[in-house]
Specification:
There is one protein chain. The chain is an alpha+beta fold. It folds into two domains: 34 residues, no CATH class; 47 residues, no CATH class. It contains two helices and seven strands; from the N terminus they run ααβββββββ.
Amino acid sequence: MSYSKKDLKDIKNKLKKENPSFFNNSSIKKQKKSIVKSQPSRKKIVKWNYKVNDVVTCIHSQRIGLIVSDNTYFGRKLEKNYYFVLFGCRVQKYDGSYLRAL
């Protein structure tokens, strides 16, 4: 059975009159929540440690290649975790998560 808002308010006022210390515990919970909300959330950033001239293999194609550049290649710029890799006679951009060092 559900209660109306008016009934709940009356019951709450009745509890306050009978036992005022009952509602003192709820203020502690509010303080804990405010502390948790005030902390900024951190983003998890994975940074790969491949360097130029490292020999790597691609997970999907199982090809062996050579890292040519980290972020910039002939004026083209990429995000942090992307690398320009030489596979055969082509230079392609790959995410660091798809590469494995040999």
